[in-house]
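Input.
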Amino acid sequence: QVQLVESGGGLVQAGGSLRLSCAASGRTFSSYYMGWFRQAPGKEREFVAAISWSGVTTYYADSVKGRFTISRDNAKKTVYLQMNSLKPEDTAVYYCAAPQLVTVVPGSSPKEYDYWGQGTQVTVSS
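Output.
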């Protein structure tokens, strides 16, 4: 069983920054890809970013590329999402997620992830 707990959300003005954290427990964190997704009211959950087990490989949605940075600290079993130059359209609940199998290299579909946190709200005011 894997537990994921997000934190760091809040209210910020457009152009501001936030750093989200996702603390993992329950298995060997360092062996798995991790991802961030977000879901705005009335919209489907969408991919934001993902990172390989080593942190060497990262990929991003086009909408956040150049503004968001995903990273991880395997010793702390934590993955981060640094969000800069925030826009009102970034407003959403942000979730971290992990696949069930260490062999999975997930893409951008939520269906490729098996474990989810409870989410943290990010609100960007204009």
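The mean pLDDT is 95.
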